[in-house]
Amino acid sequence: MKPPFKRLTLIGIGLIGSSIALAARRKELAEEIVISTRSEATLDRARELGLGDRYYLDAAEAAEGADLVILCVPVGACGPVAKWIAPCLAPGAIVSDVGSVKEAVVRSMSPHIPQGVHFVPAHPIAGTEHSGPDAGFAELFENRWCLITPVEGSDADAIARLAAFWTALGSNVEEMDPVRHDRVLAITSHLPHLIAYNLVGTAHDLETVTQSEVIKFSAGGFRDSTRLAASDPTMWRDVFLNNKDAVLEMLGRFSEELAALQRAVRWGDGEALYKAFERTRYIRRNIIEAGQETPAPDFGRHVKEPGE
Amino acid sequence: MKPPFKRLTLIGIGLIGSSIALAARRKELAEEIVISTRSEATLDRARELGLGDRYYLDAAEAAEGADLVILCVPVGACGPVAKWIAPCLAPGAIVSDVGSVKEAVVRSMSPHIPQGVHFVPAHPIAGTEHSGPDAGFAELFENRWCLITPVEGSDADAIARLAAFWTALGSNVEEMDPVRHDRVLAITSHLPHLIAYNLVGTAHDLETVTQSEVIKFSAGGFRDSTRLAASDPTMWRDVFLNNKDAVLEMLGRFSEELAALQRAVRWGDGEALYKAFERTRYIRRNIIEAGQETPAPDFGRHVKEPGE
Ligand SMILES: NC(=O)c1ccc[n+]([C@@H]2O[C@H](COP(=O)([O-])OP(=O)(O)OC[C@H]3O[C@@H](n4cnc5c(N)ncnc54)[C@H](OP(=O)(O)O)[C@@H]3O)[C@@H](O)[C@H]2O)c1
Ligand SMILES: NC(=O)c1ccc[n+]([C@@H]2O[C@H](COP(=O)([O-])OP(=O)(O)OC[C@H]3O[C@@H](n4cnc5c(N)ncnc54)[C@H](OP(=O)(O)O)[C@@H]3O)[C@@H](O)[C@H]2O)c1
């Protein structure tokens, strides 16, 4: 079967870009993969890893003649990159992105998309704390959601082709309004990252407990947070700069609830604590049933399952 | 070789008690394992699982003639159980516990320990979010820390024997002052759990994002929190009731730092955000180097490593 796209151009070849490259190659989704990134060092590394067929520092050159262009750069860079490549986009091409925030990306990219080119924003909800072209792996998107957030006038056929692309990468695709996307992700991803950064930062600044004690005796809860807090600072800076309202809304609620828990601790209100701790259990059960998590105990190392 | 203990009595046979039972049996650390728990249902289940040699609902009967008694019950139950078993403790016996808080446990158990019995509190820093006798596994303590927090007048020989027991279970043993223990664990374990409960609770109460959206699109950060927030509510209620001061101290710092981050988000201060996100990375690197974590990406399912 002929690949569905002739030329796939990836602009930005970090964790997400390189994972798309590897997966698209394995699933034969493009006849040719063209890669562009800002720095020579990253471009050289992408070439060494054999992630694509051609390599350019100039994003516009890379985008020329492509029928699918995906921006895999931090959210704040999407507007400038769209502006850069705009003059070279082929009529009928699909331009997409993978940004973790959608409304701001739509706002910054839309004005640059030429007539006759189809802009279809998307966000694969899949990632790790690693970044750069070495971090990618072809299975990253398997059984993960990819949210497509069409904009006014998005071409139905272009949406369908991009959805088919992500489905072929292994994702479950769903459409969502960009504003709603940003709200949902604010609570399921952005706020948890902010909290993790804050927790690890708090531990870092204590005078009463030493750094080496924190590191040595870091229990499960803290270890998980250090993983999130090891994520790329540029990517996350851009997320918070570009999803301010939804993050502040969730953060306000979080702080309110935390004040109530703090009060229960201060007054030794065991009943309130028990009630607060009891009602959260079933959410996890539901997530496991939804197939987005395994129930296996995992406290920072892999526990062999019976029969594994 | 003869097992180092003749009779090991475990009072409480949930995650920690059953893991000790399985590991002690495998490593031949006791000639006989005696089990006691409060409810008939749990005792029956322990018997079905073959976790011990004898089973009692009466903790005092179970403790009789044991040379090592370990309380594996919630922190708040340690005092009452110590009082219950006190009259039956054999002279020279070692009494220990596994509570996640130490100063309060020392305060509540010490008065009940008879002359000639050695009280040596301990805390294995190992756990999962599961509880009950089915949750245990013999490898739980391998390569994990076990902190022993001797009290005034703790017998050096008894400390050494308990340390050897935990070393045989696979743990790295270290001594620490109970007050210091509670401070360290407040930041590495107790606060992270409180935060996780609070985060999942916040998501649960939102009106602007539905439960099913939270469950469906729960990204890595949130999924980790749901794991912590699925932990046993009784155990955690008791932790917060019994480590109030240290938890409130850490929580105060956490909230202060969070207010600063919130301000940076509100004012779009990218530099402040970047700086806050940058400095937390190396802590994880150090934890990995300390052998308490693997660098493998793990976003809720096991990713095969090359060569695995
Ligand atoms: N990481 C995740 O978990 C995850 C998950 C879903 C979506 N996303 C989204 O995916 C996108 C990329 O993330 P990633 O994790 O793949 O990042 P990454 O590994 O750090 O790679 C970023 C790529 O973008 C380039 N870049 C960085 N700043 C740029 C700028 N100002 N202008 C132009 N190019 C720039 C980098 O180029 P050089 O290396 O050449 O400087 C690199 O090729 C982001 O929008 C993020 O929100 C991330
Ligand atoms: N879970 C962890 O991650 C972890 C890690 C390190 C240390 N710890 C500490 O280990 C201890 C036990 O935790 P766990 O996870 O093993 O708990 P678990 O699985 O919930 O088991 C608790 C055991 O204690 C018994 N119990 C509960 N309430 C009691 C009461 N009021 N009086 C007497 N017995 C009572 C239960 O008896 P029935 O089932 O018969 O009611 C059960 O046998 C706690 O002190 C905890 O702080 C836990």
UniProtKB/TrEMBL annotation, chains A, B:
<comment type="pathway">
    <text>Amino-acid biosynthesis; L-tyrosine biosynthesis; (4-hydroxyphenyl)pyruvate from prephenate (NAD(+) route): step 1/1.</text>
</comment>
<comment type="similarity">
    <text>Belongs to the prephenate/arogenate dehydrogenase family.</text>
</comment>
<feature type="domain" description="Prephenate/arogenate dehydrogenase">
    <location>
        <begin position="6"/>
        <end position="295"/>
    </location>
</feature>
<dbReference type="InterPro" id="IPR050812">
    <property type="entry name" value="Preph/Arog_dehydrog"/>
</dbReference>
<keyword id="KW-0520">NAD</keyword>
<dbReference type="GO" id="GO:0006571">
    <property type="term" value="P:tyrosine biosynthetic process"/>
</dbReference>
<keyword id="KW-0028">Amino-acid biosynthesis</keyword>
<dbReference type="InterPro" id="IPR008927">
    <property type="entry name" value="6-PGluconate_DH-like_C_sf"/>
</dbReference>
<dbReference type="InterPro" id="IPR036291">
    <property type="entry name" value="NAD(P)-bd_dom_sf"/>
</dbReference>
<dbReference type="GO" id="GO:0070403">
    <property type="term" value="F:NAD+ binding"/>
</dbReference>
<dbReference type="Pfam" id="PF02153">
    <property type="entry name" value="PDH_N"/>
</dbReference>
<dbReference type="Pfam" id="PF20463">
    <property type="entry name" value="PDH_C"/>
</dbReference>
<keyword id="KW-0560">Oxidoreductase</keyword>
<keyword id="KW-0057">Aromatic amino acid biosynthesis</keyword>
<protein>
    <recommendedName>
        <fullName>prephenate dehydrogenase</fullName>
        <ecNumber>1.3.1.12</ecNumber>
    </recommendedName>
</protein>
<keyword id="KW-0827">Tyrosine biosynthesis</keyword>
<dbReference type="GO" id="GO:0008977">
    <property type="term" value="F:prephenate dehydrogenase (NAD+) activity"/>
</dbReference>
<dbReference type="InterPro" id="IPR003099">
    <property type="entry name" value="Prephen_DH"/>
</dbReference>
<dbReference type="InterPro" id="IPR046826">
    <property type="entry name" value="PDH_N"/>
</dbReference>
<dbReference type="InterPro" id="IPR046825">
    <property type="entry name" value="PDH_C"/>
</dbReference>
<dbReference type="GO" id="GO:0004665">
    <property type="term" value="F:prephenate dehydrogenase (NADP+) activity"/>
</dbReference>
